[in-house]
Write a structure and sequence with these properties.
mainly alpha; globular; about 0% strand; about 150 residues
Length: about 150
Protein backbone atom coordinates (compact mmCIF):
# COMPACT_ATOMS: atom_id res chain seq x y z
CA UNK A 1 0.00 0.00 0.00
CA UNK A 2 2.85 2.37 0.85
CA UNK A 3 4.44 1.66 -2.49
CA UNK A 4 1.23 2.73 -4.26
CA UNK A 5 1.12 5.97 -2.22
CA UNK A 6 4.79 6.70 -2.94
CA UNK A 7 4.30 6.11 -6.66
CA UNK A 8 1.13 8.24 -6.67
CA UNK A 9 2.98 11.03 -4.81
CA UNK A 10 5.85 11.04 -7.29
CA UNK A 11 3.39 11.05 -10.17
CA UNK A 12 1.54 14.02 -8.68
CA UNK A 13 4.78 15.89 -8.02
CA UNK A 14 6.03 15.12 -11.52
CA UNK A 15 2.79 16.37 -13.03
CA UNK A 16 2.96 19.54 -10.94
CA UNK A 17 6.51 20.21 -12.08
CA UNK A 18 5.48 19.63 -15.67
CA UNK A 19 2.61 22.08 -15.43
CA UNK A 20 4.77 24.70 -13.74
CA UNK A 21 7.57 24.47 -16.31
CA UNK A 22 5.38 24.75 -19.40
CA UNK A 23 5.79 28.04 -21.24
CA UNK A 24 2.73 30.29 -21.12
CA UNK A 25 0.57 30.47 -24.20
CA UNK A 26 1.72 33.22 -26.58
CA UNK A 27 -0.22 36.45 -26.56
CA UNK A 28 -0.02 39.76 -28.32
CA UNK A 29 1.79 42.50 -26.43
CA UNK A 30 -1.04 44.87 -27.13
CA UNK A 31 -4.34 44.20 -28.81
CA UNK A 32 -5.13 47.42 -30.61
CA UNK A 33 -8.67 48.65 -30.51
CA UNK A 34 -9.72 50.54 -33.60
CA UNK A 35 -11.74 53.73 -33.96
CA UNK A 36 -14.77 54.18 -36.17
CA UNK A 37 -14.49 53.92 -39.95
CA UNK A 38 -14.93 57.68 -40.44
CA UNK A 39 -11.88 58.54 -38.32
CA UNK A 40 -9.86 55.88 -40.12
CA UNK A 41 -10.84 57.24 -43.55
CA UNK A 42 -9.96 60.79 -42.48
CA UNK A 43 -6.66 59.48 -41.09
CA UNK A 44 -5.85 57.81 -44.39
CA UNK A 45 -6.49 61.14 -46.13
CA UNK A 46 -4.04 62.79 -43.69
CA UNK A 47 -1.50 60.03 -44.42
CA UNK A 48 -1.77 60.77 -48.13
CA UNK A 49 -1.98 64.59 -47.83
CA UNK A 50 1.24 64.88 -45.83
CA UNK A 51 3.14 62.43 -48.02
CA UNK A 52 3.60 59.66 -45.45
CA UNK A 53 3.03 57.12 -48.23
CA UNK A 54 6.08 58.43 -50.14
CA UNK A 55 8.38 56.74 -47.60
CA UNK A 56 6.18 54.32 -45.64
CA UNK A 57 4.34 53.07 -48.74
CA UNK A 58 0.73 53.36 -49.82
CA UNK A 59 -0.14 50.32 -47.72
CA UNK A 60 2.14 51.26 -44.80
CA UNK A 61 4.55 48.37 -45.33
CA UNK A 62 7.59 50.59 -45.87
CA UNK A 63 10.45 49.63 -48.08
CA UNK A 64 11.66 53.01 -49.37
CA UNK A 65 15.46 52.80 -49.55
CA UNK A 66 17.35 54.60 -46.76
CA UNK A 67 21.03 53.77 -47.23
CA UNK A 68 22.78 52.39 -44.14
CA UNK A 69 19.68 52.65 -41.94
CA UNK A 70 19.61 50.08 -39.15
CA UNK A 71 16.19 49.02 -40.41
CA UNK A 72 17.67 46.91 -43.23
CA UNK A 73 18.53 50.03 -45.24
CA UNK A 74 14.87 50.91 -45.65
CA UNK A 75 12.27 53.21 -44.16
CA UNK A 76 10.31 50.97 -41.75
CA UNK A 77 6.71 50.05 -42.27
CA UNK A 78 3.97 51.35 -39.99
CA UNK A 79 1.64 48.35 -40.01
CA UNK A 80 2.79 47.19 -36.56
CA UNK A 81 3.03 50.55 -34.73
CA UNK A 82 0.15 49.44 -32.50
CA UNK A 83 2.48 46.86 -30.96
CA UNK A 84 5.35 49.21 -30.28
CA UNK A 85 3.67 52.42 -29.18
CA UNK A 86 0.73 53.61 -27.18
CA UNK A 87 -1.48 56.11 -28.96
CA UNK A 88 0.05 58.93 -26.90
CA UNK A 89 3.59 57.78 -27.76
CA UNK A 90 2.76 57.52 -31.44
CA UNK A 91 1.20 60.99 -31.38
CA UNK A 92 4.40 62.35 -29.82
CA UNK A 93 6.56 60.60 -32.47
CA UNK A 94 4.46 62.10 -35.25
CA UNK A 95 4.75 65.58 -33.77
CA UNK A 96 8.46 65.34 -32.85
CA UNK A 97 9.70 63.17 -35.72
CA UNK A 98 12.97 61.25 -35.51
CA UNK A 99 16.02 63.51 -35.31
CA UNK A 100 18.40 60.69 -36.15
CA UNK A 101 18.17 57.25 -37.68
CA UNK A 102 20.45 54.50 -36.40
CA UNK A 103 23.21 53.33 -38.68
CA UNK A 104 23.54 49.69 -39.70
CA UNK A 105 27.30 50.20 -40.14
CA UNK A 106 28.56 52.69 -37.52
CA UNK A 107 31.47 53.62 -39.84
CA UNK A 108 29.20 54.05 -42.86
CA UNK A 109 27.38 57.14 -44.07
CA UNK A 110 24.51 58.69 -42.17
CA UNK A 111 21.15 57.52 -43.55
CA UNK A 112 19.87 60.35 -45.75
CA UNK A 113 16.22 60.18 -44.71
CA UNK A 114 14.58 60.69 -41.34
CA UNK A 115 11.01 61.37 -40.34
CA UNK A 116 10.29 65.06 -39.92
CA UNK A 117 8.29 66.38 -36.99
CA UNK A 118 4.81 67.60 -37.85
CA UNK A 119 4.21 69.86 -34.83
CA UNK A 120 2.79 73.18 -35.98
CA UNK A 121 1.84 71.70 -39.35
CA UNK A 122 -0.81 69.11 -38.50
CA UNK A 123 -3.85 70.02 -36.45
CA UNK A 124 -4.71 68.07 -33.32
CA UNK A 125 -7.59 66.43 -35.19
CA UNK A 126 -5.32 65.43 -38.06
CA UNK A 127 -2.79 63.84 -35.71
CA UNK A 128 -5.54 62.00 -33.81
CA UNK A 129 -7.07 60.67 -37.03
CA UNK A 130 -3.67 59.72 -38.43
CA UNK A 131 -2.99 57.71 -35.27
CA UNK A 132 -6.35 55.93 -35.70
CA UNK A 133 -5.54 55.15 -39.32
CA UNK A 134 -2.12 53.76 -38.38
CA UNK A 135 -3.78 51.66 -35.66
CA UNK A 136 -6.15 50.24 -38.28
CA UNK A 137 -3.22 48.93 -40.34
CA UNK A 138 -2.39 46.33 -37.70
CA UNK A 139 -3.09 42.99 -39.40
CA UNK A 140 -6.46 41.58 -38.38
CA UNK A 141 -5.00 38.07 -38.28
CA UNK A 142 -2.51 39.22 -35.61
CA UNK A 143 -5.28 40.83 -33.56
CA UNK A 144 -7.44 37.70 -33.69
CA UNK A 145 -4.62 35.17 -33.33
CA UNK A 146 -4.20 35.64 -29.58
CA UNK A 147 -7.76 36.35 -28.48
Amino acid sequence: MRLVLVIASFAAIGYGVHVQTQAPAPHAMRSPDVADAGAIARGRAVYERYGCSACHGADGKGGFANTNAETEGKVPGVTFVAEGFTRAELRRKILDGFATVGKKDPNGPRPPYRMPGWAGQMSDDEVRELVEYLWSLYPKSETQKWR
